[in-house]
Amino acid sequence: MIKTLGRSAATLVCVAALASCTSGDSEAEADLCGISASSEEEALVREILGTADFETKTYKSKSVLADKVKQAMQQMIPGKDSYFNAACRYGRDDQQGGTYAIFSFGWSPRASSDVPTASGSVTYELNGAGGVVNTGNSTLLAQCDLPGELGAQSRNVRLSADAAFSAGPDGPAENQAAKDRRMTLTYLMARRVTDALGCENKPLEKPPVVKPLPTP
Q: N or C: which end of the chain has fewer CB within 10 A?
């Protein structure tokens, strides 16, 4: 099972490195992070951040992210998570630190890819993918069978979508409906990446049906 501390540390590394991330051209950015008005993603971002206005920032274009995520798999240390690539940020900055949702992507070894849990976390099963929402972050793990020379290796790992959330000085809401929204948005963002990677098994093709699992 992935240690929660390790997962949080990986997310913090990505957040700390955001300043060095580069953007692609505007059309490529729209492919990966752009959300249209009145879409499900837009409604979720507004509800999660608690604001009607937010800015979208793309750190890597669709093609660049796909290449970087594939490289991360090739460079994995056996038994360890890969490095993660920051992709999209939705947020609004203010004097109190602002609110944001940041999405990063990498891989976890299949043998140790149970979703990380902690006190107060909620776990999910979404069309065969596993998810968890903790305070301030969420993770989705999905099998992504890549074509070509990476096919065999991809079947020994799972794509990991990590999201970090901040909602001002009080932090993100922790009621069940709020956690469900964060998990749903993480699923929808991960689906964009599975499409970019060309996962042959199309793991997130179906609409998200968010089902919190019973607490053990």
A: C
